[in-house]
Amino acid sequence: MSYLQVTNDERELTAFICGELGAKLLLTDVAVAGEANMADDPCSALPARLPLVAKFGSVDVYTLIFWLHACGPIKTFGDAPAPETPRDRVARRLTREAAMEKYADVIDLERTPALILHRSHWHAPNRLAPGNLGRTTTFPAAQSAYSSAQRWLRKRGAKVDPFAYCEEARDRRPKRLGPLWVWVQPHAMALVEQGTEIWPWNA
Questions:
Q1: Residue 127 to residue 188: CA distance in whole angstroms
Q2: Which of 5, 105, 180, 201 is the most buried (most CB within 10 A)?
Q3: CA-CA distances (angstroms) from residue 79 to 32, 43, 174?
Q4: Residue 93 within any structural domain of the chain
Q5: Are 114 and 135 in contact (CB under 8 A)?
Q6: What is the residue range of 188's domain?
Q7: Structure pTM?
Q8: Angle, helix 7-19 to helix 186-193, in steps of 10 degrees
Q9: What is the tally of structural domains in the chain?
């Protein structure tokens, strides 16, 4: 299940997650000496526009990290246990290569309780691709916060078939949509009603 949001929807979701759920919006995924860089005013700290399709060198913001500090502390790779699977080893190596000297201070999201908003983005000039909401750990309190945020999004959103709103993809619609259903949030829906298309896939 995906969620289509524009910046005003993101602000309202952030107000809910930080206000009702008590999360902290992180401004970076680096925590020097374990100290996270958090937004004092999370709604004002959000990006002013949605990102474009991801490409090398882009400076757009594609994810928002909400630390659930009541569920547990921030963990960094400086004290992370050795990866156990080939996939984890590759991921760890890529992180180390990207972060270089900051590697030890990069937040280990596998061990830090947080909600991660993968933002909607512009797939084309008049076409939006949906994003998603995830959580980083299976701590019971983190799972509860994640479930609350999902209920909030679905209560205010409209469940739509994205293939009905994208001429290019219409003939590629599967018989069963399953996870391809999109919950379109109110401000995003205003754009859709004005003719903005919905790309069915969020990757």
A1: 11
A2: 5
A3: 13, 32, 45
A4: no
A5: yes
A6: 2-74+112-198
A7: 0.92
A8: 170
A9: 1
